[in-house]
Design goal:
By secondary structure, the chain is of the alpha+beta class. The chain contains nine helices and eleven strands. The protein folds into two domains: 13-125 and 324-328, NADH Oxidase, CATH 3.40.109; 139-309, NADH Oxidase, CATH 3.40.109.10. It has helices at residues 13-23, 62-81, 113-121, 139-150, 164-179, 182-191, 252-271, 281-284, 286-295, and strands at 35-39, 44-48, 85-90, 99-106, 155-158, 192-194, 202-203, 241-247, 275-278, 301-309, 326-328. The strands form three sheets. It has a five-stranded mixed beta sheet, with helices on one face. A hairpin with a 4-residue loop joins strand 1 (35-39) and strand 2 (44-48). Helix 1 (13-23) runs antiparallel to helix 2 and helix 2 packs across helix 3 (113-121). The longest helix is centred in the first third of the chain and has 20 residues, at 62-81.
């Protein structure tokens, strides 16, 4: 049951709250927020909330693990920002597969300047579904994104211009396959186009513009038809920076690791003045995900596809109250 938060390790009650709030600022499929936290006297546990899984779009819970990995990266950074070292164990108990990680704040260790910049980016990160400006990116900016993924034992591929048309076709194919699935459409309608005041799902204000017939990219309507149309004749940016984040295998630990890499890339992008949105459909449909894997070389597993650019600010999406996500126990996890 939800309970009043208590100190964990060297963290005060208020510091625990601050760290958990940072964790909840992670992105998730349709803003489903599929995570829970359990606090013991020494440990913060991250659990998958399988009751918030999306079986039509994410039947194997791959994107659920990506989202929880992103929340874990935020939690790690927040603890570093409070002056502690986060001792992390992934999948520590095979008898409890929903327990994804334990995090023990240990010692005293100040965050580095680079970590401090990422911590500052956590509340500024949003999924930006609006058109971006037509701007190019420098070599150092691209290298920073690549290093961010590699820091989490994952990889990032920057799609060269000659591969972008093929990806565009795969996105279109995935979109049409999903739209032909009544289960997917019903699930989509439950989670998107939410009115103001809801604590989850994608609100109309964050849904982006309405898709149009002349769009080069096949776009999803997150607004249930309530979004605004763009200025006549104005399409999305002509040459978006497309990156693929992936893993070296496709088992659950690699997906959780890739979620941490995805979030580090997103925060690095924010730190460099970039915005990002997801091209999720291409990795949600098994057929197009296999084709994408072939496109980028065949030896690695694509987990997330990001569209990056520079754009105007957008509102943040809502979050569930922390009291609904966290519980407290005196029982310590087994070592």
């Amino acid at each position: 049951m939800p309970a009043t938060l208590v100190p964990v390790g060297g963290l005060s009650t208020e510091q625990v709250r601050e760290a958990l709030l940072a964790a909840t600022r992670a992105p998730s499929l349709h803003n489903s927020q599929p995570w829970r936290f359990r606090c013991t006297p020494s440990t913060i546990e991250l659990h998958a909330d399988v009751d918030r899984a999306l079986p039509a779009a994410d039947p194997d819970n791959r994107e659920l693990l990506l989202a929880c990995g992103a929340a874990l990266l935020n939690l790690r950074l927040a603890i570093r920002g409070l002056g502690y070292y986060p001792d992390v164990r992934l999948f520590p108990d095979h008898r409890r597969p929903e327990l994804l990680a334990t995090v023990r704040p240990r010692g005293h260790q100040m965050a580095s300047p680079a970590e401090q910049r990422l911590i500052a980016a956590i509340p500024r990160r949003r999924t930006n579904r609006q058109p971006f400006f037509d701007e190019t990116f420098t070599g150092p900016e691209r290298d920073a994104l690549r290093r961010a993924a590699e820091a989490e034992r994952s990889w990032l591929a920057l799609l060269p211009p000659e591969q972008v048309p093929t990806l565009r076709q795969l996105v279109q194919q995935a979109h049409f396959l999903q739209q032909e699935d009544p289960g997917f459409v019903a699930e989509w309608q439950r989670w998107t186009g939410r009115p103001f005041g809801e604590s989850d799902g994608v609100p109309v204000s964050s849904g982006g513009p309405l898709p149009e017939a002349h769009d080069e990219w096949t776009l999803r309507d997150f607004t249930a038809g309530q979004g605004r149309r763009r200025v006549e004749g104005k399409d999305f940016e002509s040459a978006p920076l497309i990156v693929v984040i992936g893993s070296f295998h496709d088992l659950p630990p690699a997906r959780l690791q890739a979620g941490q890499a995805m979030q580090r890339v997103l925060l690095t992008a924010i730190d460099h003045g970039m915005s990002a949105s997801f091209l999720s459909q291409v990795v949600e449909v098994p057929e197009t995900r296999r084709k994408l894997r072939t496109l980028i070389g065949g030896g690695l597993w694509p987990q997330a596809v990001l569209r990056l650019g520079r754009g105007s600010p957008v509102p943040r999406t809502p979050r569930r109250p922390l009291e609904d996500l966290a519980e407290v126990t005196d029982v310590e996890p087994e070592a």
